[in-house]
Amino acid sequence: MTPLFVVQHLERETPGLFQDLAQQHGMAVQVIRVDLGEPLPSLVKGDGLLVLGGPMGVADLYKPAFPWLEDEVLLIQQALEHQIPFVGVCLGAQLLAHAAGGGVEPLLGGDPPRPLAEVGWAPITSTLEAANQSLITSLMQPLDVLHWHGDRIILPETANVLATSVRCREQLFRIGPLAYGLQFHLEVEDQDVFRWIAEDNDFICGALGENAADILRDQQRLYSSSSRPRRLKLLADLFRELWPSYF
Question: Could you tell me the pTM of the whole model?
């Protein structure tokens, strides 16, 4: 049974559908709460690693409040070096890019351009670079996903962009044969998003204005259920790329 180590940074950002899918297919999921002081794993061949999101970022790497971020970068570099299957979501995707020699900068929007987060449901579409990727059968048509980030990823030259959004090019990418970064969220269910809305008010209002909570609740009701089958298919296709013996 393949161990899938899941690095979680705060209570509200859980593995959600990632964990459900992995367990349904017989993988052994171990969630590690680094914010609660739980130690990161020592990886060996045959393991898998999933790093989730959080409000912290690459700019917080050397801050005393997040001492585990530096260790996460080292762990991701180990996964890349030893070709251990890896998925990074939001913060996890940013750490993957950083670990491979890339970076992060504020996402700009508006006229004139200014730092402006991408928050809410919006489609991603596959790129020409993704044409030969089997997992991109899930993206032959645009797919509505949840965005919740204020930065954009500066990818290293070794990365391949697989899907983009109107606001941000670097949405789904691959580095090497077995490492994928997702700037967006496939994994969240309604209860998760409603909690994010309640607990992240300043962030969402900075992106969408004072009616942000109402806008996001309306979007959730409109897009979550309708997109769920295709989001699950993309998740399954991604896992099939990384752990074919289970899928």
Answer: 0.95
